[in-house]
Amino acid sequence: MNMRPRIRSEVICYVMAGLSRDASRFVRFKYAGDRSRRRGVIEDLARRVWKRRKKRNTSRSLLITPKYIWDLAEVAVDEANSDGMCGRCNGKGWLDTGLKRIDCFSCFGSGRRKTGDIAIARKLGVGLDFYRLEGKSIMERHMLGILASYEGDLYNAFRERL
Q1: Considering only CA atoms, which of 150, 116, 113 is closest in space to residue 136?
Q2: What is the mean pLDDT of residues 17-43?
Q3: Can you give the pLDDT at residue 62?
Q4: What is d(CA 61, CA 56) in angstroms, rounded to the nearest whole number?
Q5: Would you kindly state where each structural domain of the chain is located, as residue ranges?
Q6: Secondary structure E strands in the chain
Q7: Residue 93: per-residue pLDDT
Q8: Res 9 pLDDT > 90
């Protein structure tokens, strides 16, 4: 049996020492399962995006409230933390009917779950058109981009320090 050696906790601490506070908080939440960090990640994300929105100060930005940004940050953090596996077929991409296998009708055979615009708009308590017009770009471009950059910081720290 060929097993990979376990990474010691001292090595992980050494790698994480080079991360920013925000990135470290997100990494601890996502990879270490530290649920107590969730609120801090949401606060940091909402604060960064709100600051960015205030700098632009367009007439359309008057419709966006701090609570909406907070709710959007919650959805973005949950999306970034999910494994993305389809719940119906458990990531296989197909369902067994007993007679034959058919492509999963929830993920269309991909095995991946994608939270749709309708489900996100419902979570936020806003209309679909408002979410697509105002919230979707904020979540996908800004929030998920920031969270992806935190993961990039982690990979860079691993590459540089190990």
Answers
A1: 116
A2: 88
A3: 54
A4: 8
A5: 9-161
A6: 94-96, 101-103
A7: 81
A8: no
Single-letter amino acid, residue 116: G
Q: How many CB atoms lie within 10 A of CB 8?
A: 9
Q: Tell me the C-alpha distance between 29 and 115, whole Å.
A: 21
- For 103-131, write each residue's pLDDT tens digit: 887 777 777 776 788 888 988 888 999 89
Asked if the model's pLDDT at residue 59 lies above 60, the reply is: no
Long-range Cβ contacts of 131-139 (<8 Å, 24+ apart): 134/60, 134/63, 134/64, 135/68, 135/72, 138/49, 138/53, 138/64, 138/69, 138/72, 139/72, 139/75, 139/76, 139/79
154 residue type, one letter: L
DSSP letter for 112, please.
B
Tokens of 22: 């925000």
